[in-house]
Amino acid sequence: MRMEKIVLEKVCWKIKATTAFQFLQLYYSLLQENLPFERRNSINFERLEAQLKACHCRIIFSKAKPSVLALSIIALEIQAQKCVELTEGVECLQKHSKDYYSTKKLL
What we know:
Layout: H1 2-10, H2 20-33, H3 45-56, H4 66-81, H5 84-96, H6 100-106
């Protein structure tokens, strides 16, 4: 990792950390692709974004990984909306994520 950092500094690359908002956008777009056209508005992105902002105001969520936080917010919203079509999609995202067990703990 030290060598990677040295090389990146030499080529003037700046690496930015991926934020929970970026994960939220990614997961949301992946789930939208799996929905039929008439159901695409069932999950409101602005609502998800507001929930993420509310989580950032609480110190308990400051230690959570950004990907876990974003996935948990989406999973809870899908449970609240009772979107059966998306439940399988979220489970697939959880299984393919390194953060599977962390997400399960937050839920």
